[in-house]
């Protein structure tokens, strides 16, 4: 069968979540993927899920998605348990300006029903045993934030039962009142191809400001001792770290870019210096594995969602938080395919860039 009602290009978490939502609404759908399920950014992301953001739209997408993630084992048929682990996120501020920024974000989050709060140095050290209280001015905390220990299993669970076809969709073109995407004809097409989305849509004269941005994560070998439960982000130092359920510690120099061989030791030094001053229990952790991934980044670090032509939709440009908000994006995109306009599209549509209506996100990792 080469004709379907909806074709989705891209088998990452976003494309699969959209396809599942469309299928569950009774429509025939095919997912077209060049390389394989989670072959791009969805295959290397660490599975974090948070609600602490600096814009209302990001908070709203996160809240809706967290409601799904809390029931994920009931909603998806997975081969392994998927439960969201709520270990908490601490955004640590060393200076007063950074703390003021977190305070403004927490006020906004609270208005959106997110129960984050500002904590002082002593309470932060209680929440994150081993953290050096004297090293920070305070922080923002939400104990509900957490992660999936096996995020790739989550992506695979979304794929269960879907019609996923190996196809290199080099271009899109009109086919009567619908579209042809590679070998498939469809009434509607959703492009969720990450960093490859702009090139695919450029064949139609549609320009999207999405660029690839390299990101790197270091992983330790499994460590039996529990050294760090919450995820800690120290933006001023460009540092983030978390210990996973299997004992591995992941850590990142958030400014790491460019060639891995040239930057590896410099990035390790950043992690080591931050650990010594902030989390000394990590000082002697070694990180033999360096994993490379890529964010599909927009100028305001918000996704591009919604129609770009009649029957043609986009869901891309997630700037590193596509996994976290995939359930909400799937619902909004499926609504758009059915002709229902979610208010989120007024903020996140492709036209915002030309109109100068950027929605800049400040609380980034």
Descriptive key words:
365 residues; single chain; globular; 25% strand; alpha/beta; 18 strands; 8-stranded mixed sheet; FAD/NAD(P)-binding domain; D-Amino Acid Oxidase, Chain A, domain 2
Unreliable spans: none
Main sheet attributes: strand count, strand direction, barrel closure: 8 strands, mixed
Instruction: Specify the CATH homologous superfamily of the largest domain.
Output: FAD/NAD(P)-binding domain
How many domain regions? 2
CATH class annotation of the largest domain: Alpha Beta
Shape: globular
Helix content class: 25-40%
| Separate helix tally | 10
Average of pLDDT: 95
What is the end-to-end distance? 43 Å
* Chain oligomer state: single chain
CATH topology of the largest domain: FAD/NAD(P)-binding domain
In total, the number of strands is: 18
What is the name of the CATH architecture of the largest domain? 3-Layer(bba) Sandwich
SSE arrangement, N to C:
EHEEHHEHEHEEHEEEEHEEEEHEEEHH
Q: Could you say which structural class the secondary elements and strand pairing correspond to?
A: alpha/beta
Strand content: 25-35%
Account of the protein in words:
Helix content is 30%, strand content 25%. By secondary structure, the protein is an alpha/beta fold. It has two domains: 160 residues, FAD/NAD(P)-binding domain (3-Layer(bba) Sandwich), CATH 3.50.50.60; 146 residues, D-Amino Acid Oxidase, subunit A, domain 2 (D-Amino Acid Oxidase, Chain A, domain 2), CATH 3.30.9. α1 packs parallel to α9 and α2 packs across α9. It starts with a strand and ends in a 17-residue tail after the last helix.
